[in-house]
Design goal:
The chain has three domains: 55 residues, no CATH class; 197 residues, no CATH class; 150 residues. 46% of the residues lie in helices and 15% in strands. The protein is built from 15 helices and twelve strands. Helix 4 packs antiparallel against helix 7 and helix 11 packs across helix 15.
Length: 420
C-alpha cells in the first residue's frame, strides 16, 4: 500500500461527496421546514404533536384511522408476543375508535417517586383494549423513576420507550430505590426507535397518503428530519458508491483500513487547537489554570473562578445524547449548595439571556442545548469549518459571549466573597 493509493482514494471519495451534495441542492433534499423554524429537536412542539396528529383518527389529515392501524401493525411486527394486537388481529374494514392525547398529567410526583408525572402521548381505545403510553425521548435525559411512575399509572397499558436509536431506558428511570420496584425491557416496557420503527411506519403513512399531497409531503419532510437526527441523511447511493470505490482492489481496501485506524489521532489533532483557544478564552475572563478543566476526549469543557468555586458551580459546555449543551454545573453534585432559591435566581437570569432552561438535572441544574451546534460530535462540516478558519471567529466569539454573560450572572448573584 502506498501513499499515492490513499491520496487517490481520498480524491475519489471527495468527488463522490461533491456529486451527491450537488444532487441534494438540485432536488432540495436538505430543505426542511422543521429545521428552518428551529423545531427539529422539540419533543413537545414537534415530535409528540406530530405523532399525535397522525395517530388520531379525528386528525386533520382526513385519513381517519389509517395511520393508527399502520402503527399498530408496526408494533405487532416488532413485539409480536405482546397482547396488542398482532397484524392478523386487525379488521381493516371496522374503524378503530380512539383518543390520542398529548402531555397527559397523572398527578404530582410522590415522595417515594412511585406516582405522578406527565406522559408524552396516551392512546385510549373505545373498544376496551389496553392503552398505549409513549415516553418520547429526542435528547432529553431520563427522569427519576420516570417509567416506573408511568407503569404504575396503568400497569396493563402498553408502555413504549421511544428514542432516536431504540436504546433501553436507564436504571434511574426503571428502578425505584425506595420501593425496590424494577422494570424490565421487553416485559414492563418496550423500546422502539425513530431510526427504524417510526421511519418504517411513516413510510407506510406516506404510501397511504399518496392521494393527499399536502399530508404526504409533510410526512416526507418529517421523515427527512428524522433521518437527519439519526444521522441517516447521507445518501444511501453515496455510501454505496464510496463502498464500491474502497472495494475496487486490495490496495484500495488496505488504504481505507489505514485511514480508519487514524481516527483517534485525527480527532486529537482536530480538537487540540480548539482546546487551546478555549483555554485562552478562559484566561481572558480570569479563569486561569488549574481552575480550568478541559477533556477533549469527551468534549467536556468546564471553567470556574474563585466566586464560582465557593458557590460549588462551574460554567460548562458538555456533550451528551448527540448534542452539545451549556450552562452551570455543580462542581460537587452531592453538595446541597447552592440552594434552590439561588438556583432559581440564576435560572431566571439565564432564561432571560439565552432562553428557557431545558431539562435540568442534579449535575446540571441550569443548562440549555447549544442550538448553534446541535450535532457537535458528528457534524464534520462544522468541525472542518472551525478547524480551517472558515467560521472560526464566529464559533469562538459565540463561546466568548456565553462565558462573559454567565460570569456576569455569577457576579450579580454572589458577592465577591462567594457567600451563598
Amino acid at each position: 500500500m502506498s501513499a499515492t493509493t490513499i491520496t487517490e482514494l481520498l480524491a475519489r471519495v471527495s468527488e463522490i461527496r461533491k456529486k451527491h451534495e450537488l444532487i441534494a441542492d438540485i432536488t432540495g433534499e436538505r430543505f426542511n421546514v422543521f429545521g428552518i423554524l428551529g423545531l427539529q429537536t422539540s419533543e413537545t412542539r414537534t415530535h409528540s404533536a406530530l405523532l399525535c396528529e397522525l395517530l388520531d383518527p379525528q386528525g386533520t389529515h382526513g385519513l381517519k384511522d389509517a395511520f393508527l392501524k399502520a402503527f399498530i401493525r408496526m408494533l405487532g411486527s416488532v413485539h409480536g408476543h405482546i397482547d396488542h394486537p398482532t397484524p392478523g388481529d386487525l379488521d381493516e374494514i371496522s374503524p378503530i375508535a380512539a383518543r390520542v392525547i398529548p402531555e397527559v398529567g397523572i398527578g404530582c410526583k410522590s415522595a417515594d417517586c412511585s406516582q405522578g408525572g406527565r406522559i408524552d402521548v396516551v392512546i385510549e381505545f373505545a373498544d376496551g383494549r389496553r392503552k398505549i403510553l409513549i415516553e418520547n425521548k429526542i435528547y432529553a435525559c431520563d427522569q427519576e423513576c420516570q417509567l416506573v411512575r408511568y407503569h404504575n399509572y396503568d400497569s396493563k397499558a402498553l408502555l413504549l420507550y421511544l428514542t432516536l436509536d431504540g436504546g433501553e431506558a436507564g436504571e434511574s428511570s426503571t428502578i425505584n430505590p425506595s420501593t425496590k420496584q424494577h422494570l424490565e425491557s421487553g416485559v414492563h416496557y418496550f423500546p422502539i426507535s425513530y431510526k427504524s420503527h417510526i421511519l418504517n411506519w411513516l413510510d407506510e403513512c406516506r404510501k397511504v397518503a399518496s392521494n393527499h399531497p399536502l399530508v404526504r409531503e409533510t410526512i416526507v419532510q418529517y421523515m427527512n428530519l428524522i433521518r437527519q437526527l439519526t444521522q441517516q441523511n447521507t445518501s444511501s447511493k453515496m455510501s454505496e458508491e464510496i463502498a464500491n470505490a474502497v472495494l475496487r482492489d486490495e490496495e484500495t481496501l488496505l488504504a481505507y483500513s489505514a485511514l480508519y485506524q487514524t481516527y483517534g489521532t485525527l480527532r486529537e489533532k482536530l480538537f487540540l487547537p480548539i482546546t487551546t483557544e478555549l483555554i485562552n478564552l478562559a484566561n481572558k475572563h480570569g479563569m486561569t489554570s488549574p481552575t480550568t478543566e478541559i477533556d477533549p476526549a469527551s468534549q467536556e469543557f468546564y471553567f470556574w473562578d474563585e466566586v464560582l468555586d465557593h458557590a460549588n458551580l462551574m460554567i460548562g459546555f458538555s456533550f451528551d445524547q448527540g448534542k452539545w449543551f451549556f450552562g452551570f454545573a455543580r462542581r460537587n453534585p452531592e453538595s446541597p449548595a447552592p440552594g434552590d432559591d439561588v438556583i432559581k435566581e440564576i435560572a431566571a437570569k439565564f432564561s432571560d439571556m439565552f432562553g428557557s432552561v431545558e431539562r435540568p438535572t442534579k449535575n446540571w441544574p441550569i443548562c440549555r442545548w447549544w442550538q448553534e451546534y446541535p450535532k457537535w460530535d458528528s457534524d464534520w462540516k462544522t468541525l472542518a469549518s472551525i478547524h480551517f478558519e472558515k467560521t472560526q471567529s464566529a464559533f469562538y466569539n459565540n463561546v466568548d459571549d456565553k462565558l462573559r454573560k454567565m460570569k456576569e450572572m455569577s457576579v450579580q448573584v454572589f458577592p465577591a466573597s462567594g457567600q451563598l
